[in-house]
Write a structure and sequence with these properties.
By secondary structure, this protein is α+β, with helices and mostly antiparallel strands. The protein contains 19 helices and 26 strands. The structure holds adenosine-5'-diphosphate and magnesium ion.
Length: 620
């Protein structure tokens, strides 16, 4: 179709709004144009996060020399003719506004050559004004160079995010398109450094490997062909097995008819498909593409075209959920156990997981093989009255402030008789381990009654304080890897991680950038030698995304994430000795009552409250 100006009645029916807000949105619009032009190679280059320069070069159709200028007028497009065309859009663009918008806020050079023209055309537009036109001799295709974005809109310039943030957005977008269009070879270069390169040979698996690295890329499961063909709504793509999960939703990507969209409801269809198969608060890795008749999906909802509306959203939801579920359950463990924390059933930990947990716990204190008894003043005899002192159970107490200001030696004062009490930031009294419940909680007895300890939360607290104090002293024990491991992260995560490497050094994780989203991991924190470096780096990148830019907070966030991974999990059977050690270590922490994420580690039920429940009236 030729490029033409849209009649007013059509233009007015297009979702209005500015699309060029930031460098990343310029890249998105230009790359979508290249894809619409049928390109098989798309090269993106930026300088200074796109503020000084964005170059997008393609080998697509190119523009005819007598049409090229028109492309920069508002509401000019070759993708739409009449209003009814809006009902079945099959191209990524259709608004005819992007080039005009970009040209009005930058110095733009367009170099384009259509196959049927003898020569190409070069146009120079500054702040929306044509300043130069000449014939050029370039191969068919188009190259757009955007310099000094927003040079004439200082207000916009002022609100630009950091260069790193822009690169992250660009990379996030480009990696997704690289996966959705495996037949197109994409390269992305920032400030002379390559962030992404895909072969463009049509092999999605190869793209996944180059984007996600060998570990993750190879583990992804392909949605079987039965969902990919023969339905009005066809679902294809790749999803992670249940052993692969991430701390945030950023690893779920949805494409509808070749367009990346963000749709909370459909993302939920993917999460639902993993129902009961993933740990609580963990999200799947999934790349799901849906093909459906264009007339059943309305893309003219929002100017950035990232939102769509479906004629029958429920059936799209069901199609996605069914396809993902079927793919995942092929590999999920067959039996499941009740997980009271989430109210969901959860697969039991596999043998190797259990072994790993055991090894983690053992690594906790390599030097200590016996249970330690209190080294400070022993509890007053009254505190232990009624408690058996002998028997097989280890009796524990811990070093800490004198018992008189931490352990109540008198009967519980009035007003502290609530049946389930979560006590404040005090230290713990000496506790005697009674046993384990639901392979999740440690049951213990203390001077005031019954204590329930969340084993995972408690271990997290112990590891966290230990690592934090060592990081402050700059001596987290680190375990050099026999061979440095190469880990590839999605470009946006990689970019985020890079500014973070010095903080990682302090906690014993030594990694160096290795180009194109790849890192060379040389050593890991000794406590985490059983966790795969790829998982570790992905977790840390997620932590970096969530926390504030204050260095100390970043470090703490990283440590929190690391400890979460390293801590014993629910579902882990612990021996009496291991439980006793854990409680002993918990007592020694500065803040034993909460885990580093703020959840309680201990719940107390007073003897008094128990007595009342049994209708004994008082504490006697
Ligand atoms: P839209 O993509 O919505 O049509 P744009 O302003 O992005 O609007 O582009 C205007 C027109 O310029 C397109 O319709 C297309 O004909 C032409 N065009 C833009 N970029 C390219 C490109 N890379 N290759 C070929 N033609 C292009
Ligand atoms: Mg466009």
């Amino acid at each position: 179709m030729p490029i033409r100006l849209l009649p007013d009645d059509v233009a007015s029916r297009i979702a209005a709004g500015e699309v060029v807000e930031r460098p990343a949105s310029v890249v998105k619009e230009l790359v979508e144009n290249s894809l619409d032009a049928g390109a098989t190679r798309i090269e993106v280059e930026t300088r200074d996060g796109g503020t000084s320069l964005i170059r997008v070069r393609d080998d697509g159709s190119g523009m005819l020399s007598n049409e090229a200028e028109l492309a920069f007028r508002r509401h000019s497009t070759s993708k739409l003719e009449r209003a009814t065309d809006l009902e079945h859009i099959s191209t990524l663009g259709f608004r005819g506004e992007a080039l005009a918008s970009v040209a009005s806020v930058s110095r733009l050079t367009c170099n384009t050559h259509h196959r049927s023209d003898p020569a190409g055309t070069e146009l120079r537009i500054e702040g929306g004004k044509f300043v130069h036109r000449s014939a050029t001799g370039r191969p068919p295709g188009t190259e757009l160079v955007i310099e000094d974005l927003f040079y004439n809109v200082p207000a916009r310039r002022k609100f630009l995010k950091t260069e790193r943030t822009e690169r992250r957005h660009i990379n996030g977008f480009m990696t997704r398109y690289a996966i959705a269009y495996p037949e197109v070879a994409f390269t992305v270069v920032h400030d002379g450094r390559q962030a992404l390169a895909t072969p463009g040979n049509g092999d999605v698996r190869e793209v996944l490997l180059s984007v996600y690295g060998a570990d993750l890329g190879a583990s992804l499961l392909e949605i079987p062909a039965e969902f990919t063909a023969g339905h009005p709504i066809r679902v294809s793509g790749f999803v992670g097995p249940t052993t692969v999960h991430r701390a945030n939703r950023g690893y779920m990507t949805l494409f509808i008819n070749g367009r990346w969209i963000e749709d909370i409801r459909l993302a939920y269809a993917i999460i639902q498909a993993y129902h009961t198969l993933l740990p609580v608060k963990r999200y799947p890795v999934a790349f799901v593409g849906v093909e459906m008749p264009p007339e059943d999906v309305d893309v003219n909802v929002h100017p950035t075209k990232a939102e769509v509306r479906f004629r029958d959203g429920d059936s799209v939801f069901r199609a996605i959920q069914r396809a993902v579920r079927a793919t995942v359950v092929q590999t999920a463990p067959a039996t499941a156990s009740w997980d009271p924390a989430s109210g969901h059933t959860a697969p039991p930990p596999t043998e190797t997981e259990a072994q790993q947990n055991r090894a983690r716990l053992a690594a906790l204190r390599p030097s200590q093989t016996h249970i330690q008894f209190p080294t400070t003043a022993p509890p007053a005899p009254g505190q232990r009255s009624g408690l058996p002192t002998g028997g097989d159970w280890p009796v524990l107490g811990g070093p800490g402030p004198s018992p008189t200001d931490t352990v109540p030696s008198a009967p519980a004062p009035e007003g502290r008789t609530a049946a389930h009490r979560r006590t404040g930031g005090e230290t713990l009294p000496p506790l005697r381990v009674v046993g384990q419940v639901a392979t999740m909680f440690i049951v213990a007895e203390g001077p005031e009654g019954l204590y329930l300890i969340d084993q995972h939360a408690a271990h997290e607290r112990v590891l966290y304080e230990r690592m934090l104090s060592r990081a402050t002293g700059g001596q987290v024990p680190s375990q050099p890897l026999l061979e440095p491991q190469v880990v590839t992260l999605p470009a946006d995560e990689a970019d985020r991680l890079e500014g973070f490497l010095p903080a990682l050094m302090k906690v014993g994780l030594e990694a160096e950038p290795f180009g194109a989203g790849t890192f060379l991991v040389r050593s890991v924190p000794a406590q985490l030698k059983h966790v795969s470096p790829a998982d570790l780096l992905a977790d840390v990148a997620a932590a970096a995304g969530e926390s504030s830019p204050i260095r100390q907070e970043l470090e703490e966030a990283v440590i929190r994430h690391i400890c979460k991974r390293a801590a014993v999990k629910a579902g882990q059977v612990l021996s009496m000795e291991e439980m006793a050690r854990l409680i002993h270590d918990l007592e020694a922490t500065g803040n034993p009552r909460t885990c580093p994420h703020g959840r309680p580690t201990v719940i107390e039920v007073s003897t008094e409250a128990l007595a009342r429940q049994f209708g004994r009236g008082g504490a006697t």
